[in-house]
Amino acid sequence: MEQSAAPAIRLEHVSKWFGKLKVLQDVDLTVNRGEHIVLCGPSGSGKSTLIRCINRLEEVQEGRILVDGVELRGDGRNAEDIRRHVGMVFQQFNLFPHMTALENCMLAPRRIHRIGKDEARARAMGHLERVHLADHAQKYPAQLSGGQQQRVAIARALCMNPDILLFDEPTSALDPEMVKEVLDTMVELADAGITMICVTHEMGFARAVAHRVIFMDRGEILESAPPEEFFSAPPARTRPDLPRPDPQPLRGASP
Amino acid sequence: MSYQFDFSPLLTYWPELAAGIVQTLRISCIAMVAGLVLGIALTALRMSPSRPLRWLAVSYIELVRNTPFLVQIFFIFFGLPALGLRFDATQAAVLAMSLNCSAYAAEIVRGGVQAVPKGQVEAGRALGLGTADIYRFIVFRPAIRAIYPSLCSQFVLLMLNSSLVAAISAEELTYAAQMIDNRTFRSFEIFAVVGLLYLALSQCLSLVLAAIGRAYFSYPSK
Amino acid sequence: MIREFGFPELLFVLEGARWTILLSALAFVCGGALGLAVALARTARSRELRWGATVYIQIFQGTPLLIQLFFVFFGLPLLGLQLNVWLAVTIGLALHASGYLGEIWRGGIQAVPAGQVEAARALGLGYRSVMIDVVLPQALRISLPATVGFLVNLVKGTALAALLGLTEATRAGQLMSNITFEPLRVYSAVGLVYFAICLPLTLWSARLERRLLRRG
């Protein structure tokens, strides 16, 4: 990108309503290149909405959103350009059921980057390798476990060579025994230096990789601090529904 | 009962019957493909952001679904020439069948598109794909798979309804039956046998469509 | 003498539509009675009955309505059954309807939870009472949207009576078209007449379906 000096993401006075309900209230946020942000807060606090606004799956009514210094236009005309270098991983994986893992990963690069089949396959296999699923490349989503599906979804996002990755509660829909394999993959990505915003309740993950933990409630950012501070300082947020720091360190999470 | 059954005229006229079967299958297959393509286009119109376009699509679909096919055939074959649109009987038949099928197909396909989870479209958008690509690569197959059985029933019904184009003397199986009836007066035998032929055709068509479905939609599901 | 397609001609078509409605009603009532028997046979204990009903349904759903009508109108008289056109068309449409309604109601009967039948049997009710008091009311409610939907098809199906010379709406249109030489206007008018009859039924069917879905 030309505007290499610009922050990866910048939100200025962003507000959003669903009908009469105000779900984002005057949010300001700057995310630097290579920064890892964990967004947490009670359900309905607007954290998922916030990251869905960044790739314009949701529209905002007020304020500005800039990705790599490029402003998201109100009419959504440049949404597709922005999405091409902002990857997203969903809670429900959203793999395409009629395509194999490999085909899921090849679709967007072929259609958007217009690369050949062989190149797309090589790229896809590389990323499936990275999430340790090269052996499962020919399987369909229905033949994979939840954890494996989510890792394919991560590989699919990586195939577009994104500058930024958004994670929307990537482990919430998983059985407990599969959470770790997905978190481990995310930790590896973080170590590789990609810009990440992750909505999650996994505080162990936050401790291990986040540069900043942001707490939201009722559409507002209430607190933003590095994890060591966030988890030790006497919290201004004394709600019972607050995520508690997870005392168990993640395996593979320590540097 | 004094009536003597005599099925021999059917043997005499078997080339006409065979030609009728081929013609019935031909016009039905053309109308199926054309109807499905038009139906998908109508579905797209129906989901477009423009309100007049949506209204147009819904009006067309409801108009076709709520009037008899026979009247539609008469309208096209006898009525449209007044507007300078002239067709021979077979062209009019195929046109009427395609247009009729498209309205039903549109109604069915819409159900399929609605059955595809919203997350699928969002995942496509998040990858940066455009609307056309999303519908073509992501929505299309799961949507058609969801409604494929209804679509097949509709196609079988279309094949059976093709018998009505005999009313404008388009040549197909029912027309052949009427012609043989007029020459031999063996109405009982002829319409019984032709009925059985249609029964066999509809069973075969169901089997073939199911096989096509298995080949095209064979991806595993939960 | 060439006439214009004016009000008297439209009135003629509307009079034809009266027969369309009467024919639909007759076919629906007769076909419904027969269809109920088919549905009961299709869900009966007896294997032979079930098999017979399945074949019956296959025949009427697997052959064109037009051939069914031709068979009744042209074929049966050869066996000595003299039928006038009204009787032939009514019988043909009723048989056709019974095949479709039988299948629709079979679905309804099978959609009633098995526990309902068991509970009724546990109370000591016989087959008649189990069906009449417990199963059929629920089954008919479940299949009401599809039943009304089929009624639309039946109304449209009555148009085929025109091909046997019965002067219902479509045949009335043909006659008017022949004397006015304005087929475009005539068939548009005929189409609109059917539309006016069918659309309310279609909308009603859709509403019933939504209500059924909402109740779960």
Automatic annotation (TrEMBL), chain B:
At the top level, the lineage of the source is: Bacteria
> Which InterPro entries does the entry mention?
AA_ABC_transptr_permease_3TM, ArtM/GltK/GlnP/TcyL/YhdX-like, MetI-like, MetI-like_sf
Q: Which Pfam families match?
A: BPD_transp_1
Q: Which residues form the signal peptide?
A: none
Please give the GO cellular component terms listed in this UniProt entry: ATP-binding cassette (ABC) transporter complex
PROSITE patterns attached here? ABC_TM1 (PS50928)
The transmembrane segments are 20-42, 63-83, 146-170, 190-217
Q: Which GO terms describe its biological process?
A: amino acid transport
**UniProt GO molecular function:** transmembrane transporter activity
Instruction: Describe the protein's quaternary organization and the partners it interacts with.
Output: The complex is composed of two ATP-binding proteins (GltL), two transmembrane proteins (GltJ and GltK) and a solute-binding protein (GltI).
Q: NCBIfam families, alphabetically?
A: HEQRo_perm_3TM
Q: Which family does it belong to?
A: Belongs to the binding-protein-dependent transport system permease family. HisMQ subfamily.
Function, please? Part of the ABC transporter complex GltIJKL involved in glutamate and aspartate uptake. Probably responsible for the translocation of the substrate across the membrane.
> What is the recorded name of this protein?
Glutamate/aspartate import permease protein GltK
Q: What species is this protein from?
A: Alloyangia mangrovi
From TrEMBL, chain C:
Cross-referenced Gene3D superfamilies: MetI-like
Keyword presence, Zinc: no
Which compartments does it reside in? Answer: Cell inner membrane; Cell membrane
Which GO BP annotation is one of this protein's? amino acid transport
Primary location = membrane
Q: Membrane spanning segments where?
A: 20-41, 53-79, 85-102, 146-166, 186-206
Q: Which Pfam families match?
A: BPD_transp_1
Where does the signal peptide begin and end? none
* Alphabetized InterPro entries for the sequence: AA_ABC_transptr_permease_3TM, ArtM/GltK/GlnP/TcyL/YhdX-like, MetI-like, MetI-like_sf
Protein's UniProt keywords contain Membrane: yes
UniProt xrefs under SUPFAM superfamilies: MetI-like (SSF161098)
| Membrane topology per record | Multi-pass membrane protein
Keywords carried by this UniProt record: Cell membrane, Membrane, Transmembrane, Transmembrane helix, Transport
CDD domains (UniProt xref): TM_PBP2 (cd06261)
The residue ranges of the ABC transmembrane type-1 domain are 17-205
Q: Which GO terms describe its molecular function?
A: transmembrane transporter activity
User: What does the entry list under GO cellular component?
Assistant: ATP-binding cassette (ABC) transporter complex
Give the UniProt family note: Belongs to the binding-protein-dependent transport system permease family. HisMQ subfamily.
According to UniProt, the name of this protein is Amino acid ABC transporter permease
Q: What is the lineage of its organism?
A: Bacteria, Pseudomonadati, Pseudomonadota, Alphaproteobacteria, Rhodobacterales
